[in-house]
Amino acid sequence: MESSELNEIELSLNAGKSLILNSPAEIKVISGDVEIWGASISSEIRIEERKIPLLIESISNSRLLIRSKFHPAETKIPDSWREVEKSVDSGITIFIGASDSGKSSIIAYLANKLVARGLRVGIVDSDIGQKDIGPVGTISSAVFSDLPIIPWLKEPDKMYFIGDKTPRGHLLPMVVGVRMLADMTKADAILVNTTGYVSDDAAVELKLRKIENLRPDRVVGIDDGSLGDLLSRIPPYVKKIRIRAPDEIRKKGVAERMERRRINIGRYLNNSDQVELDINSLFIQWSPLGGGNIGNETLEFLSKELGVRAICGHEGPSFVYLLTESCPDAERIRKIEMLTGKRMKTEAVSDYMNLYVGLLDEQGLCEGVGLLKGISEGKIRVLTKCEKRPSGLRFGFIKFSDQGFEIGRRRVCR
């Protein structure tokens, strides 16, 4: 980031005034006491990454020199944040609220305040669609002990791969992943961010099971009117802190959310290389590939009946899960279902291209993410920046271009 590319502004801030600014930016304190996300800064801070929000508060009358492509906007730190700060200490705190209720912002603010008190702070980020820490589609964690804390700049310590931008259809992995990372996060205080999925029955169930599994010390509900049913169902052993969603938090549209995901994915895919992996050396999850209990003779029969090559599959008491070279005709699938009396779920290898995948270590944790680029002759090609040789692969549910644009979803044939 060249300073010549940035606009320069020198301004005065009265005590108690606040600004919000998106990076890339340079902020220099000329005089006075200034905080960024609740952490005191005495000289200069420089952020080169794009679209990182910077919350600046003047504690005393101050003067700043700001270089940025964007003009800072006036804002106000909600009084409710300061009230929550008095109630949050060590232990586990879960934050729930609808999209754009300010969960990420209050967590960044509290993390700085808690570290300033001398605590080690862990953040478990389970907002898989709008990530603060780590790549989209993962639950991730990081521990902080130095100021200032700007979570969006931190690389994750641990990751658990979900492979989608929404928890819908993945409720059990969401609960398991949050618990695994919370258990592994060695910190005095753990702050758990969650998705904005709060309104329907499945959303309420997901949040309640997370709370039941984690047994947090407190839950902070940031309410815009959508949390009434959820908060009333939380058991009384959990301390509930209910605050109003602040008006200062700007609402993001669909296009902006997609752009944020594109920037995030680009960060983890740019300058990637294709690696070739031996399918037989991997444990593969969420795909029939690399496993299954259907023998070659049955696969040959299915290939003939479906009119496409059946590669592998798994047969259960009431279903057949089959991977084929391309999608069979729907009428042929129905014929097999009538013949076997079992529901058939069929996926095509041709539809796996550019599918988002997680590269797993021997514990099943995610070491990196990538895009599936090819499957042939017992080999699988993945575009990834991960330098470690994975022990396993977990197939996701969303597709990205090499540039990070969303280009579709994984689908079932028929």
TrEMBL record:
This is polynucleotide 5'-hydroxyl-kinase. Keywords: ATP-binding, Kinase, Nucleotide-binding, Transferase. The keyword Transferase applies. It is an enzyme of class 2 (transferase). Polynucleotide kinase that can phosphorylate the 5'-hydroxyl groups of both single-stranded RNA (ssRNA) and single-stranded DNA (ssDNA). Exhibits a strong preference for ssRNA. It comes from Candidatus Methanodesulfokora washburnensis. One of its GO terms (molecular function) is ATP-dependent polynucleotide 5'-hydroxyl-kinase activity. Its cofactor is a divalent metal cation. Residues 97-270 form the Clp1 P-loop domain. GO terms for biological process: RNA processing. Its EC number is 2.7.1.78.
